[in-house]
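re: the backbone from monday

yeah here it is again, tokenized this time
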């Protein structure tokens, strides 16, 4: 890319950012965003090349094979692999524990490709503001049906909640997705995630789904107190970050 093309590229990035942010963006900020985007594209390309090699190898080993190394994210439980290796087959990359659960018929391998068809436990907790103990109690009471992924020793690795297993109780995930809201704080633009129940009456959103019978609507004054406490905690964290930055500059 010559100097003129580079200049046009940065100008285009500047215009896109200003349209998204709704405020003026400096040339330096546009250049930094462009570098970050180029770096991301390079990483994605490297991953794509690597996956093409896996797909080619899969033709020779159609049942799948072990990928050496740690740190890959499992397409089923979404945890980073802490084992020496992951498994790759027609469903994609999974940890060895989830692969073992698929082999034992505890869960279908297709979950790796059908993320919208089930809730992971942490997704269930976030969507309905539940604690781990709430989920466990509801399983015992028969409110929810879980597919339990176990390791080789029979220990619980993950609990998954298939929507088809909980038909009429759990809604489609798209109904309870969080939303990003643009906010201005001290002259800066921030994006904060808000849960679905902040944008309407939960009883209307979950109308017809039995899980609503087991949820409590938080009164407005309690919600306001929670939000104020969250705001105070965010401000405290931000003040601590700024204090650490100033300390590092002095050092």
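seq for it, each position gets an aa:
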């Amino acid at each position: 890319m010559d100097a003129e093309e580079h200049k046009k590229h940065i100008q285009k990035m500047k215009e896109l950012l200003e349209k998204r942010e709704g405020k003026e963006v400096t040339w330096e900020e546009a250049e930094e965003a462009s570098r970050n985007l180029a770096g991301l594209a390079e990483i994605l390309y490297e991953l794509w090349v690597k996956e093409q090699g896996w797909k080619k190898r899969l033709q020779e080993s159609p049942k799948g094979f072990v990928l050496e190394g740690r740190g890959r994210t499992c397409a089923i439980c979404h945890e980073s692999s802490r084992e020496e290796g992951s498994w790759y087959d027609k469903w994609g990359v999974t940890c060895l524990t989830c692969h073992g659960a698929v082999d034992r018929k505890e869960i279908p391998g297709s979950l790796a490709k059908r993320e919208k068809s089930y809730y992971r436990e942490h997704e269930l907790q976030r969507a309905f503001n539940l604690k781990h103990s709430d989920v466990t109690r509801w399983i015992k009471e028969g409110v929810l049906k879980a597919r339990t992924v176990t390791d080789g020793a029979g220990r619980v690795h993950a609990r998954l909640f298939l929507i088809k297993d909980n038909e009429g109780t759990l809604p489609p995930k798209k109904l309870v997705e969080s939303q990003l809201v643009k906010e201005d704080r001290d002259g800066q633009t921030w994006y904060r995630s808000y849960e679905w129940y902040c944008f309407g009456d939960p009883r209307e959103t979950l109308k017809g789904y039995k899980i609503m019978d087991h949820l409590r609507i938080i009164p407005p004054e309690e919600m306001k107190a929670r939000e104020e406490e969250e705001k105070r905690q965010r401000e405290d964290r931000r003040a601590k970050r700024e204090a650490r930055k100033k300390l590092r500059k002095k050092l």
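The mean pLDDT is 86. Residues 1-58 form one domain.
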